[in-house]
Amino acid sequence: MNPIVEVQGFTKSYRDVHALDNVSFTLSENKIYGLLGRNGAGKTTLMRIITAQVFATAGTVRVFGETPYENDRVLRRICFIKESQKYPDTFRIADVLETAASVFPNWDRELALSLAEQFRLPLKRKMKNLSRGMHSSVGIVIGLASRAPLTIFDEPYLGLDAVARTLFYDRLLEDYAEYPRTIVLSTHLIDEVSRLLEHIFVIDGGRLILDEDADALRGRAFTVVGPAARVDALTSRMRPIDRTMLGGLVSATFWGKLDADERRRLEAEGLELAPVSLQQMIVRLTNGKFDGKAVSGE
Amino acid sequence: MMDDSRPIFMQIAERIEDDIIEGRLPEESQVPSTNQFAAFYQINPATAAKGVNLLVDEGILYKKRGIGMFVAKGARERLMAKRREQFYEQYVVAMIREAKKLGITPEQLSEMIRRGESEA
Known about the structure:
Shape of chain A: globular
Shape of chain B: elongated
Number of helices of chain B: 5
Number of domains of chain A: 2
Oligomer: heterodimer
Number of domains of chain B: 2
CATH superfamily of the largest domain in chain A: P-loop containing nucleotide triphosphate hydrolases
CATH class of the largest domain in chain B: Mainly Alpha
Number of strands of chain B: 3
CATH class of the largest domain in chain A: Alpha Beta
CATH superfamily of the largest domain in chain B: Winged helix-like DNA-binding domain superfamily/Winged helix DNA-binding domain
Strand order of the largest sheet of chain B: 1-3-2
Order of helices and strands of chain B: HEHHEEHH
Largest sheet of chain B: 3 strands, antiparallel
Helix content of chain B: 55-70%
Structural class of chain B: mainly alpha
Largest interface: A-B, 26 and 22 residues
Number of strands of chain A: 13
Largest sheet of chain A: 6 strands, mixed
Distance between the termini of chain A: 22 Å
Strand content of chain B: 5-15%
Helix content of chain A: 25-40%
CATH topology of the largest domain in chain B: Arc Repressor Mutant, subunit A
Number of helices of chain A: 11
CATH architecture of the largest domain in chain A: 3-Layer(aba) Sandwich
Order of helices and strands of chain A: EEEHEHEHHHEHEHEEHEHEEHEH
């Protein structure tokens, strides 16, 4: 598969703080990626470097095979929708869409208008008078209608209710099926989007701690509940990523897979097994109690 | 609709298998496209394709070039045989384990199965 973005040994420091610490990864053509992590983990910095808005302290980035800095050939193929997007004070929604139409070569005007209608956007209203949710909706309309070969959404749905978010997911999948492209979704709403994603990156403390096929992660961790001695006996051969106690009971989450035999044996010992959702998994990997260095590449 | 304990592509494959076993997808009928699956379940199209391809590899579905996916002849009988084996593992063994835990004797268990037979 064709790499669209290749990042090697990225480090970004602000004075003596590493916002990103030696991050390397590749984005392939026509996949939907999730970029997950806590606030301040380095997600936005990473996206800003890919889109040539920030220089890396060390490392290289190639987008569509070229360096993105002041490179119009690259930049016009990228659409970056960010939460903090500012618009000129006099701009109405219609003006913003018109500007976008002139910036993005693949812009689909009909799609933009049909999305604007579905998101109930008043085209003549000024951007500065929009609610938070409408502001986000404008970003979503631009992100989808631009049909840019690399489309990045950074927390695209602040202020949007569940109905509007579902509309976004539906229209994203629908348009992606017809016009495949590389999409990056950076978000907190992990369980809500996990099924849309083909591949997942998790950033924590400026480091990339997970780089995995999304579907392969399902069933990759499990929780065991039972008497402390029995549960702790498992830690000799499996790595716990979380452990909590309630009286003599321990609930521990392990990174790893159980085959049917092991599962049966543990259940026969009176231990209770439960699946771990992607969101729970990522919360446990990024809650600061776990050193995630060794997670990838199993 | 999807659970977290297993990859989604396996769950998609199982749903198609269920449809074939229960006759909603007869042999030689056309299966929805991966994009239709993706839109219906709100999942990534590549994941849906992986589930469908699993069944193609097993000979349950076959591809007609340029038209789509179809249910193979004999698919239902093969799936039934596979599911009967799984039934023993998933239900019979699990039931006996739970019965032991609750102190139900094998005789009582047989009696319960007979009673259940008249209710199901």
